[in-house]
Specification:
Layout lengths: L15 H11 L1 H4 L4 H10 L7 E5 L6 H4 L4 E2 L2 E2 L1 E2 L10 E2 L10 E5 L12 H10 L3 E2 L2 H10 L9 E3 L3 E2 L10 E7 L14 E7 L7 E3 L1 E2 L1 E3 L1
Parallel strand pairs: 4-11, 8-12
Antiparallel strand pairs: 1-6, 2-3, 5-9, 6-14, 7-13, 8-10, 10-11
Helix pairs in contact: 1-3
Length: about 220
């Protein structure tokens, strides 16, 4: 199995009140049909927790296709690859229960750098054994919105908590990931260094992709 040695992960997240204001500034509350005061009140009621807590909007309210363009890296907006028009159909993997609420919190975030060069097929059972749950694509996008430094060239991450179930009940072999475009192929040179939502195969390994995960979700 690939090397699982630990690597540095990003610095602590901003306080929840700051995260709420960031979402409001970006207009996420409007696309999610959540009043700004409701968002602020949720952050306030969660207390002064900070450093290891991420404020997330339920994917039914704020889908990946709407969040991706809000990302910024090298002053360039994020985008979804052209061959992933079904990005919003990627739903939580069986066994991942989201809070029944428009807003919720994630704790214990880890980018999974130590799993770089693992395949999703190898990473999922390892995370389960560690009592960790893989991030959804929308959760990964929220993380980068709040902490752009979470996305670094050569240290990007997969969000294998989101999978697409096909009509026959089987899972699509694509697994979502967030990384930085090289501006090649259909991305276009103008998108070099832009944050990118793409996908990788379930059985493939990539030296520059970890596996983002959390310890808990709570309303």
């Amino acid at each position: 199995m690939p090397n699982a040695s630990s690597l540095p992960t990003p610095s602590p997240l901003p306080p929840l009140a700051t995260q709420a204001e960031r979402l409001i500034k970006l207009g996420v509350h409007e696309l999610a049909a959540i009043p700004a005061d409701t968002l602020r009140a949720f952050a306030a009621e969660a207390g002064g927790r900070h450093g290891d807590v991420l404020l997330a909007v339920h994917p039914d309210r704020a889908p990946a296709s709407a969040l991706a363009p809000l990302l910024r890296h090298d002053a360039k907006p994020g985008f979804v690859v052209t061959d992933m028009p079904d990005v919003d159909r990627f739903a939580p993997l069986d066994g991942i229960a989201l809070p029944d609420a428009p807003l919720y919190l994630l704790t214990g975030l880890d980018r999974g750098d130590h799993m770089a060069d693992w395949s999703p097929e190898e990473a999922l059972p390892a995370l389960t054994e560690q009592d960790r749950t893989p991030l959804l694509l929308t959760e990964g996008l929220h993380w980068v919105l709040q902490q752009p430094a979470a996305l670094e060239r050569n240290h990007c991450f997969m969000t294998i908590g989101s999978r697409l179930r096909k009509a026959n009940g089987s899972l699509d072999a694509r697994t979502p990931a967030i990384w930085i475009s090289n501006g090649t192929g259909r991305d276009g040179r103008e998108r070099r260094n832009a944050p990118k939502v793409g996908w990788c195969w379930w059985g493939n390994r990539h030296t520059w992709l970890g596996f983002a995960s959390a310890t808990a979700r709570e309303a």
